[in-house]
């Protein structure tokens, strides 16, 4: 279903976020996430005016992971920031994520290592997309249901709750019957 038609309006700002996953020749995997913020008009900053269309933020992070979702390497770059020499001075600190696991306790690890003034709010927000991007990257590399192991995606969102109709219809082996009132 589409959104309802909006009221007449003027475009002011665009945030673009792209996450891509890659299989490397060495058997590891790279996830790259990029965030850009642009405006449709000249934008005055304390550091100078950004022309319409020139990015206020342009930042990319690459994490190399293994099949178990463990981060092996991190590289961050910020070619466009509102405060050059300040914002981009934190790029190397994202290396603190090496050893963290995207599937186990990741958000807590990010908060502990890079929360607040220990990181860049925009880059840290971008890092928060990596766990689900990794799941999507790996999803096409394994059978959705091998019949022996409960599919990873079950019981991770409302549509795929093991007591729900979607699981009954598409994953009957893993269906657990209608939920008892109050189970949710």
What is the CATH-assigned architecture of the largest domain? Alpha-Beta Complex
Task: Report the β-strand fraction as a percent range.
Answer: 25-35%
Count of alpha and pi helical runs: 4
Give the ordered list of helices and strands.
Answer: EEEEEEHHHH
- Count every beta strand, where a strand is a DSSP E run of 2 or more residues: 6
Overall pLDDT: 93
Structural class: alpha+beta
| Biggest pleated-sheet summary | 4 strands, antiparallel
Tell me, what's the shape? globular
Radius of gyration: 21 Å
Distance between the termini: 26 Å
The proportion of residues forming helix, as a percent range, comes to 10-25%
- Give the neighbour order of strands across the main sheet: 1-2-5-6
| CATH C-level name of the largest domain | Alpha Beta
Instruction: Identify low-pLDDT runs.
Output: none
CATH topology of the largest domain: Sufe protein. Chain: A
How many structural domains can be distinguished in the coordinates? Answer: 2
Descriptive overview:
The structure is a single chain. This protein has helices spanning 106-114, 121-127, 130-139, 165-170, and strands at residues 13-23, 29-39, 43-45, 48-50, 57-65, 71-80. It folds into two domains: 13-139, Sufe protein. Chain: A, CATH 3.90.1010; 143-184, no CATH class. The strands form two sheets. Strands 1-2-5-6 form a four-stranded antiparallel sheet, with helices on one face. The protein has a two-stranded antiparallel sheet with strand order 3-4. The protein is of the alpha+beta class and 184 residues long. The radius of gyration is 21 Å and the shape is globular. The mean pLDDT is 93.
